[in-house]
Amino acid sequence: MRPHDFAPPTARSRRRPVLASAALTGLCLTAAGCGGGGQAPSSSPASPTSRPPAGSTAARPAPTAPLGGRTVVIDPGHNPGNRDHPREINAQVDIGTGHKECDTTGTATNSGYAEARFTLDVSRRLRALLEAEGAKVVLTQDGDRPFGPCVDERARIGNKAKADAVVSVHADGSATGNRGFHVILPAVVKGGEAGTEKIVAPSRELGERIAGNFARITGSTPSNYIGGGSGLDTRNDLGGLNLSTVPKVFIECGNMRDPEDAALLTREGWRQKAALGIAEGITSYLKR
To answer: What pTM was computed for the model?
Structure first.
């Protein structure tokens, strides 16, 4: 998530991967994190007026999709084109507690694999998983704009959608030896357009469930440099959280500047596991 120059990637087409069931073992970080999965609710019995006549072979209604009627906003961190628009992304925006850059370029691995490429790939995989469960999924950007959106607009997209959950996907850019993932939660913030009092508790539950399922499915461990081993970090300096009026968290999936973490983040199979871990955390939260 930390700024770092990188060569802009070529445009990637929207992917709709075939989903596989994950029968992976491991320990959850929290009891809430073990709540992923679950059975789809059964369809309601037909009313007397709609019951087919005796001997009819009419098919029963299909079961309701597990996340039917739910809206999830996925926020792929940064944008591959940000580095080509320094004036626009360095413009200051109001984050409630002060002002901050519109956005940054993000980080990259030592080999040049950009965070913006990683976040968009994982976000597209995550969208496919959630849509397969019946959710309406909105991406804040899908490689379809030259830069941004700015952090305040990212928050507004989730608010306007009246999302049941928002997740901002990132990867960190810390020092070599710093490894693992962490989920960033909103602090209590009030000032200007910021007011997070109502979303702090549900956002923490969302974050705990994502952290637990992410660890279980990817096999990754919580950050060894942020969060005291909990995999959770609370911050008040991120406009995307400060300005949100709906439950929202960030996830830093690993440290791109550490060779061992980078080897995972650049692996397609691992990115699918990352998307599945996040998806099961979101599903667990929405079906609680």
So the answer is: 0.80
